[in-house]
């Protein structure tokens, strides 16, 4: 019996850690796909929110799987500040040209999107939910993820 307790405890711990990791990043309406992994520079998923240091760049990676074939993917980024949606500009919103996604994407295949967001010195020090969307040519969300963050 003792021999079974350690593997059971270890499996429970792994599930708990992965569950916490998955829950920090929330789906906000992915319709034409889903995400399986999100990584943000200097973000510890066990200690939310993600800290975005002003006057630096934050890199985000999203592993996603589309449900449909898409020839164009556009990234749209907003910050939700006390209920107000504020656009965050990114240098190249075309995910097919500079974000590591080889378009057209095929349904059922996993892709890795990587982009950098400047965190400007002029941004106020506030908590913000960053809404990162990857949209198809019909403006449907392939992926929509909420990243709890704090500009510091």
From TrEMBL:
**Xref: Pfam families:** E1_DerP2_DerF2
Specify whether Secreted is a keyword of the entry. Answer: yes
GO CC, any one term: extracellular region
Q: Where is the signal peptide?
A: 1-19
Any GO molecular function: sterol binding
Would I find Secreted among this entry's keywords?
yes
Tell me the keywords, alphabetical order: Disulfide bond, Secreted, Signal
What are the residue boundaries of the MD-2-related lipid-recognition domain, all occurrences included? 25-149
Query: InterPro entries this protein is in?
Result: Ig_E-set, ML_dom, ML_Npc2-like, NPC2-like
Chief location category: secreted
| GO BP terms | intracellular cholesterol transport
Q: Where in the cell is it found?
A: Secreted
List where this protein forms a coiled coil.
none
PANTHER family referenced in this protein's UniProt entry, alphabetically: NIEMANN PICK TYPE C2 PROTEIN NPC2-RELATED, NPC INTRACELLULAR CHOLESTEROL TRANSPORTER 2
Family to which the UniProt record says this protein belongs: Belongs to the NPC2 family.
Write down what this protein is called. Putative ecdysteroid-regulated 16 kDa protein
Species source reads Lutzomyia longipalpis
